[in-house]
Design goal:
about 575 residues; mainly beta; seven-stranded mixed beta sheet; about 15% helix
Amino acid sequence: MASAPVWANQPMTVVYPPNEHQTTSERIFLIGTAPSDGEVLINGKAIARSRAGHFAPSFPLQLGDNIFTLRYQNQQLQVKVTRLSTTPELSVGLAFAKDSLTPAVDVARLPGELVCFSAIAPPNATVAVQLANQTVPLLPQTQNIQLPPNSAALTQQNQPTTQAVTGHYQGCTTLPNGNNVNSGMVTGSNSIQPQFQLTVHGKTTTQPSPGKVSILSPAQLEVAEVTADAGVARTGPSTDYSRLTPLPLGTRASITAKEGEWLRLDYGGWINGKETRIVAGAVPPRSLIRSVSARQVADATEIVFPLQVPVPVSVQQGDRTLTLTLHNTTAQTDVIRLDDNPLISRLDWQQIAPEQLQYTFNLKSAQQWGYKLRYDGTSLVLALRHAPVSTQSKQNTLPLAGIKILLDPGHGGAELGAKGPNGYPEKTANLVISKLVRDQLVARGATVYMTREEDTELSLGDRVAMIDKLEPAIALSLHYNALPDSGDAMNTQGFGAFWYHPQAHNLAVFLHNYVVNKLKRPSYGVYWNNLALTRPASAPSVLLELGFMINPTEFEWIVDPQAQQRLAEAIAQGITEWFDRVQS
């Protein structure tokens, strides 16, 4: 099995950051290597290195250009890192700061909803927005609470910070009823472009808003139909917002707000308009529901909900429960058929709010094995997967016989992933360990599928599609880790596990604890994380970060063939013991 050389046997190299790197971080680490004898100096000071000669020191960054000069014997390298300011540029004179006016895109809201405006202008100015017949004053703000990025949780630096600001102005107003002729605004496709007004020292200038504002008529709402296999629903109008339960192909809902290309659907979720089509002449989608029935198919139970129109749905998993919410739906239910079932002990329902109906599946086992949602015509079909059945017998003593497992070696092809101090790519380390884990699982009787077996490029969508098609008992994506620029590469190491759906939580915790304790490895922790390879709902899906490529000492462990073999054995045995635990 090929592996990277452990000892630095090449000239001094810096693999990260690249020269001319730009970042907003207050710190940066330099990842690299040099022969282990002698000293490496950075800006004249000797740095700590691993036994093999690898290094990863961190340095503070000043705003602007930062020059790092590295010396090893007669070698010299220079790396320039530019720290960019996160503070918006203030305006000068009688003008708004460039690109500071919001809304920056066209927005549409229902009557009575808030629309907010902001601008950056000279301090002590008077700022207002003219919106048809309304004048909206924008008031100066003295501080700004900055939330850290989500990645800050990975470096234990996720505390909000307070910034004193000058020249920031904000204000909001509620939109009038579009039928009010005195409002100066009309509903439908018509819109108005707000005018920002700035007065400084008695002089006034105006500038049109980059985004227009319109009022939607509650009686004339457009209807959107989801055209993607699983429409990505979110809590707000951009990819920065959290995901909700994906909407099955064919789902219909009224559009109650717009922001750029994003649409807010009547149940509250937002979706990109590119994943929908507008249904001409459609009325607001509402449905009754009466009978519900269940049927057993191969390895799953399907529950059929006959509806008049495909409505938005939400799923929430709990301990021994799965709750399905149907939006825009009212019950006329008197009969539900559910025979004795290997998975479900009872099905309860309640109308929790007008046009919001909830079904709770009480399950016989705490471990859930995946679900799928689809519309057959206007009937919603929820498929709940049964527990995998081992074919182990007295004649066949293999503990994972009959168990189907999918392994995903992360990255591949042009997607290198992280780099070790000597440039060794994560994609290769992922493939090496995945093949070793596969061999260990096969020796225990499992049927193992690999998303890739060579150095080939594979999209995240293709990897997810394989999980959904093959429906393994579990899916594991194997990676090695890195950090954002603000992290401490020299002192961060360890084994981490990531999950998204509650059905994968137990597996993530068990494997993390098993490997950490078995191999006496450092723990990086267990994380709920919105990752492409943890999101599949069709099987318990976990992503493992087996160690840090960028940590000089841990990298030596990562590429050591004997350590690789022990790690593969520990992962496979952990999987085996987890199956034994949840199926007993």
